[in-house]
Design goal:
six-stranded parallel beta sheet; globular; Rossmann fold; alpha/beta; 15% strand
Length: 194
């Protein structure tokens, strides 16, 4: 069993977080969730689920342990480099979170946990969902990339011939899981079909 952290910030794209969390939980891995202050509000708006409903939904299919940490709890285990994890994904990641992480300013548990993953050289996958991008956004994303983060835009591909929204969401979720080093079968590997 592996241990992952999933940060959910206030950008649009909560459906990606839901799919990634379910895949990690269903695979039997330990999952530590942290919402930014705006992340839960956006999830309620986009999915109708608050954090408690999300935890309940995850628990129904999970074979691994799931923990939720409050964004202001800087004493949570994921705030320390001594708490070993196999990686963190921020899905979705707002440009405010990108800027704070790139600047090393911390501020809440999501940003602190991301900083821990960078300083400890552990996988950090940043799934931003913003368009268009300003030069400031691009510079901050470059700082994160140069520091070791995998920058993954929430931009699904169409070569796998998606038939609905679930296929589009699965494409991004599969890429996130791969970025964390986690095998999955959410999408067909290129060249393996047809």
């Amino acid at each position: 069993m592996k241990r992952y952290v999933l940060g959910i910030s206030g950008a649009s794209g909560s459906v990606y977080a839901v799919r990634v969390a379910k895949a990690i939980a269903e695979a039997g891995h330990e999952l530590h969730l942290v919402f930014s202050a705006a992340g839960e509000r956006v999830m309620i708006h986009e999915t109708g689920m608050d954090g408690a409903a999300f935890m309940k939904d995850l628990g129904g299919s999970a074979t691994g342990k799931i923990f939720r940490h409050e964004s202001n709890d800087l004493f949570a285990p994921i705030a320390s480099g001594s708490f070993r994890t196999d990686g963190m994904a921020i899905v979705p990641c707002s440009m405010a979170a990108v800027a704070a992480i790139a600047g090393g300013s911390g501020g809440d548990l999501l940003r602190r946990a991301a900083d821990v993953h960078l300083k400890e050289r552990r996988p950090l996958v940043v799934v931003f969902r913003e368009t268009p991008l300003s030069s400031i956004h691009l510079r901050n994303l470059l700082v994160l990339s140069d520091t070791g983060a995998l920058i993954l835009p929430a931009a699904p591909a169409f070569y796998n011939k998606p038939t609905g929204m679930d296929d589009l969401v699965d494409f991004i979720a599969a890429r996130v899981l791969s970025g964390l080093g986690m095998e999955n079968d959410l999408i067909q590997e290129w060249g393996s079909g047809e």
